[in-house]
Each structure stands twice: as C-alpha cells, then as structure tokens.
Amino acid sequence: MSEFLKGNYELKVEIEEHREDAEASATDEFERKALSRLGGSICFVSKKGFLWTGDAPKS
Amino acid sequence: MELGRRIASRLHDATFDRIAHVGVANAATHRPHIVRSVLELAGLPLGAGDAALVVAAGPSLHRRRSLERLAARGFPGTIVAVDSALAACLRNGVVPHVIVTVDPHDRIVRWFGEPALAAPSADDYFRRQEMDPVHATDEMSANRAVVALVDRHGPRLRVAVATSAAPSVVSRCRAAGMELFWWNPMYDDYERPDSVSRELHRENGLPCLNGGGNVGTASWVLAHAVLGKRRVGIIGMDFGYPPDTPYEKTQYYPELRDMLGERLGEAFVHFENPVLGEKWFTDPAYCWFRDVFLEMAREAQCETFNCTEGGVLFGPEIKTATLEEFLDHG
C-alpha cells in the first residue's frame, strides 16, 4: 500500500520533529528495550480465573 | 508514575513476548511423553486437612530460618514447593508433597542438580541470586550436593510440571525417578479463537493454569485451585529484597543496569513492611508479581496467610501470621 501513498512533491519548508516528541520516543524505545529482557517466567491473564479445563459441553 | 512502576505496568505483555514462543516449542517437545494431568494430584493423599503451605525461595526463607522452624514444628497439611526451594527443603528434612516448575529456560535444571556440570557457569546467575545462597560460595560443590539430595529423594517426589518447562529439567526429573503431572500455562484469553492457550489445550488436553507471572504464584494457585485447599500459608514469598541488599545482588540487576545505566536506581520501588517496620525494595518484575498476586487473592476461594515474615506482599486480601501460628492453627 505504501507505494501508492508516496509523496510526489517537495515541501518548501523543513519539518522539524518537536523536541518533546523526540524525548517521548526515546523514552518509549528505552523502555521497550528494558521490557524485552524483563518479565516473568509465566503469563498472567486478568479476569480469566485460575484454571481452565476446556469449554463446558453445550447443553 | 515512577520509572519502576511504569515498567512493571507493562510486564504483562512483555512476559508473553519473552516466554510464549519457547514455552509452546517446549510443549511440542514434551507432547509424546505426557502421561498424567495435574488434576490427578487432587485425588492423591497429599497431606491431611484443607491447609497447604507454599514454600517459595525469597530471601526470608533463609533470613527467618523458615524451613528449620517448619521441620521442628511439623505440619500435617500439604507442602508445595517451588523448584528453586527444593534443595533447601531437602537439606532441612522437609520433603514437599509437590514441586512446581514452569520456567522454559535451561538454567533452571540447576535447582534439581546438574549431574553433567563440569565447570561454573559463564554467567553469574547462580552465584548472584538470593534464592539459594549456598550456590554463591562454591557453585560446583553446591551442585554436587543438590544432585545427591535429589537423587536420594527423587522417587518420593511429585512434580507439577508446566508444558513450558525446559526439556533439560524434565529429563533430570525423570532420571531422578520423580512422578510428573502436567499442565499448560495460561498464556492468554482462552475465549479468543486465536488463543495460544486454547490451541495448546486442543493439542494435549491439559488444563491451563493462570500462573500470575512466576512459579511462586503458580504454586499458590495450584494449592487452592487444583488441590482444593482452603487455607494456604506462604513462606519465602518476598517479591522483594531486604533493606541491606546491594542492587548488584538483585535478580534482574544485569538487565536493569544494561538498559537503564545511571537511571538504575529509579527502577526500584520501596515499601515499608508493616509487620517488621523495615523498608524493603522491589524491582519492576517483582513489583508486577506483587500487584498480580494481590489482584488474584481478591478472587481466590481460599484464605491466604503470608508467613514470610519479610518482603513486600501485604494487602487487605492477605492475612499476616507467624509461621508457627499458621502451622499450629492453619
């Protein structure tokens, strides 16, 4: 899809990324990296009870 | 929100990313060898009454000499131990009714003793960790002692083993003569048609257990949701570090140091333990485990008694007791 959305014109002004956005992006990247090496040894699934033994038979 | 808590709040998805692919691959490896379901444990005579004691491997297990006190006092109920507490239990004459193992990584086999270990590991995990301090002084001789202990007791031991567990762990348990009872970790919402949990259950027919992020919480879930125990005590469930612990001796130190650099200290969250009046601290992973445990305890059909005598796990859903109070009245 991206091949159809390419710009076919040149901008007359230079677009600068807002400093706050850049910092937020750096923070996200920083945390994403940290997260990739942290975490537990088993998942937790919220509000799904403690034990699932399969679907109950339909009556 | 402080950095440590912000990271903790995102560990739900990070854990799935970290372990789901290897856990599912391990399940496929184990599939031909699966014979018994964890549900069969409920029909076995594992201790008397409706009380169970879960033995986790946090620093209070050693600081409070919980296992020596348990052995001296005795307990007629069911004892469920995490894999990393097994050797400490056996050293103190406590033979758990059930051991729980779930971690998909090969290094976990050390908790059962590695007969083939010829040299200390390249990484310092077992020398640095707080779960069984005997490994910190002489890794090789500690391992030999664990091998001998586990070999001696193996035929009396039952393991509730997750299909995610490392094949090396399963091989070691079989070689030591342990009985294996299998379960699937609950990876995601089983009601979704593309659910990993649903697919695993379809393939092997095993129940899916909601593990709460770590083997200690999974053991507590097993005690009440599988074994049906209504009063569950926990020891060694710190989810944190004593006040005098250097950051470099914490569980996730290398990862946090590499990722956070000078901001390392911001990752730790501090709590005052209301029983001891001590200021304990926790890292993002343990902080997430704590929050999850408190959420799960609200839904549990059991009373939970924290007899750890340390750590950061406290809240309205959890009663606090000394170990002796629980052993005598639990």
Provide an overview of this structure:
Chain A is elongated. Chain A has 59 residues and is mainly alpha-helical. Chain A is built from one helix and one strand; from the N terminus they run H-E. Chain B is an alpha/beta fold and 330 residues long. Chain B has one domain (23-240, 301-329). Chain B contains 14 helices and eleven strands. In chain B, the strands form two sheets. Chain B has a nine-stranded parallel sheet. A two-stranded antiparallel sheet of chain B has the order 8-9. The radius of gyration of chain B is 19 Å and the shape is globular. The termini of chain B are far apart.
Q: Brief description of this entry?
A:
The complex is a heterodimer of chains A (59) and B (330). Chain A has one helix spanning 19-37; one strand at 51-52. The longest helix of chain A is centred in the middle third of the chain and has 19 residues, at 19-37.
Based on the model shown, name its key terms.
A: 59 residues, mainly alpha, 1 helix, elongated, B: alpha/beta, two-stranded antiparallel ribbon
Largest interface: A-B, 23 and 60 residues
Q: Stretches of chain A where pLDDT falls below 50 for ≥5 residues?
A: none
Order of helices and strands of chain A: HE
Instruction: Report the β-strand fraction of chain B as a percent range.
Output: 5-15%
Helices and strands in order, then pairings?
The complex is a heterodimer of chains A (59) and B (330).
Chain A: H1 19-37, E1 51-52
Chain B: H1 3-8, H2 11-30, E1 51-55, H3 60-63, H4 66-73, E2 78-82, H5 86-91, E3 98-101, H6 125-128, H7 134-137, H8 139-153, E4 158-162, H9 167-175, E5 179-185, H10 196-204, E6 208-209, H11 215-226, E7 231-235, H12 253-260, E8 269-272, E9 279-282, H13 284-299, E10 303-306, E11 318-320, H14 323-329
Parallel strand pairs in B: 1-2, 1-7, 2-3, 3-4, 4-5, 5-6, 7-10, 10-11
Antiparallel strand pairs in B: 8-9
